[in-house]
Amino acid sequence: MDELTPLCNETLPRLADHVRIPRYDRSGLTPGIVHIGLGNFHRAHQAWYLHRLMELGLASDWAIIGAGVRPADSVQRERLKAQDCLTTLIELQPDAVSAEITGSMIDFVPVEPDNAALIAQMTDPAIRIVSLTVTEGGYYRNAAGGFDESHPDIVHDAANPDKPRTAFGAMIAALRVRREAGTGPFTGLSCDNLQGNGAILHDTMVSLARLVDARLAAWIDANCTFPNSMVDCIVPATGEKELALAHKFGIGDRAPVTHEHFRQWVIEDRFCRGRPDWDRVGATFSDHVHAYETMKIRLLNGGHQLLANAGELLSIETISECMLDPAIRAFFRKVEDEEIAPHVSAVPGMSPASYVELIEKRFANPAIVDTTRRVAFDGSSRHPGFLHPVLRERLGREKSVHGLALAEALWARMCTGRRDDGTTIEPNDPHWELLRKAALEAEIRPRAWIEQEQFYGDLAGAADFASTFVRCFVMLQEIGTRRTLETFAKGTI
């Protein structure tokens, strides 16, 4: 289309008939949720469930207020505020593309160094849920998995509780005001890919609060709830291709979101101040979230790391292209089937083997332009969170870890910053310089990589893993990524 319709409330009726627009009156929505970390995933997932609920004439008092605690979040705020916080969701199926405008978000608080506006918003008694997507590495955990009270951000928030840097410090500051005013607690809902994300959020909140005010920490522990949840939908980053897709629909959206057709959300029903009826539009409330989490985190998120690290080394740009590469796909399938799936339990309606088949099809969808770079980002959180728990279980049962050791060697090689064709891999991790230093040292002494205790804990002391990792890393150096993957597929590593 030649002419673009700028996205805002006023222009919704002018959009093309094949673009689905909200069927509810947005002027009648009132807030009930503050969401911190408002990126693409939230808008394609949790905000979509609420939007569809509003289309049923429900949940009009549960609208979302967006928030962020990083300076970069102010750019997102500016984009979304300019279009009345509307979002274009573009669903990409292999044979069809469709567009939908969602309107469940109604405002975005100013992004400030002391988080004053965010704290004030969360003190509003109407806010009953504070949800978060702050990435797997955003919960201040140490190498042992506990709360890292020595982190500079935590030290700052403990010393300056009225001017916190972190989302958690801001939540605690708001809860202090609510406790003193008698307006009650709120539910903290993590929507990040962490095993037991609600329990981790609970521990982070109470541990930080305890550094500030022991009585407040006890009140949060006794009154707030932190349900575990499992979230799933493949949502690529937005770039020129995604903007162009919105333009094909005639929509002038500055921050459109593309996503696959599949969505899943499994949540514990523990909400201290009520909740929307998300189950009316496809979410599942369950007391067995752990099993769903384990299946998704180990097979899908872990599988993503298998693909992305190998893909980066072989200069393959997208996950779907990785699935077309015979060597990478064989590596992915062999590790999933033989080393990860045996440590995953079935959930209602889905066996581990069926789930591997499902994600293989999802990853291979060529319409989803999900880059290996995006998926490989923050390996320092994703490998310990997604792959190392399985690695430890297999070692504990004296099972082979050849594929998982190769996955770690691929990550290490990627962190040298060089692809097999000699091109440069730009920094792609919050700890990139530390990782690159260890990876380059590993070229001389391979064990240096797994001796990074902050990421591997005591795994360097596991003889079977250490010896296999060294063998894989040396093989990657000597014969390259493709031949190493082919050798593994033949069972000769």
From TrEMBL:
GO molecular function: oxidoreductase activity, acting on the CH-OH group of donors, NAD or NADP as acceptor
One Pfam entry name: Mannitol_dh_C
Residue stretches making up the Mannitol dehydrogenase N-terminal domain: 32-279
Record keywords: Oxidoreductase
Domain Mannitol dehydrogenase C-terminal: 288-470
Record's keyword annotation contains Oxidoreductase: yes
Alphabetical list of PANTHER family matching this protein: MANNITOL DEHYDROGENASE 2-RELATED, MANNITOL DEHYDROGENASE DSF1-RELATED
Protein name as it appears in the record: Mannitol dehydrogenase-like protein
Native source organism of the sequence: Nitratireductor basaltis
